[in-house]
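Need a sequence for this fold. Nothing fancy.
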């Protein structure tokens, strides 16, 4: 099982951040950071990785194998550093965006970890639950209206309390919807 920190934002829901090494950040360093919305970090990682890759290709083209080995090692160190620090950077970015750390849980995936803390989902999906299309509007809750309270009041003779015509009892035909619509 993997260990995750769970973060929550009132408007954006839950996010899970894994402890330890980030393989997506290792394999995609700057692109991973850009995908997470960390533009400055993404630009910095790409600014290191792309020139190193270009110099490595140039060194290989002129058969400067020692230079290629050193450039390859430098590139690998940048990627290892990104993979090792990525989840820490992601935690800091979430805090900067207003997320609050709730707890640490174990799970097999980020979605499973967030599901342990999140209430049953009835609204729009979170990052742990990617959207497959436009989000459905939230279901409206039945609200207590004056009409409902009027039917439960024991004093129905007061002029301020009126009963709706659609809520008439079957024993009173003068109060049925058919009787009021034909009148």
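Here you go.
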């Amino acid at each position: 099982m993997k260990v995750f920190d769970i973060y929550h934002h009132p408007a954006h829901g839950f996010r899970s951040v894994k402890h330890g090494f980030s393989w997506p950040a290792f394999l995609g360093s700057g692109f991973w950071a850009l995908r997470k919305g960390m533009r400055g970090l993404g630009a910095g990682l790409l600014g290191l990785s792309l020139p190193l890759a270009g110099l490595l290709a140039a060194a290989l083209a002129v058969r400067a194998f020692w230079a290629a080995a050193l450039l390859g090692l430098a590139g690998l160190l940048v990627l290892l550093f990104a993979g090792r620090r990525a989840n820490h950077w992601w935690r800091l970015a979430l805090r900067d965006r207003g997320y609050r750390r709730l707890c640490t849980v174990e799970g097999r995936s980020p979605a499973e970890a967030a599901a342990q803390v999140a209430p049953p989902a009835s609204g729009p999906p979170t990052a742990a639950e990617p959207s497959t299309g436009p989000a459905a509007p939230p279901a409206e809750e039945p609200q207590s209206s004056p009409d409902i309270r009027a039917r439960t009041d024991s004093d129905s003779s007061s002029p301020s309390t009126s009963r709706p015509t659609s809520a008439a009892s079957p024993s009173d035909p003068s109060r049925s919807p058919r009787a009021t619509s034909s009148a």
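For context: The longest strand covers residues 2-9.
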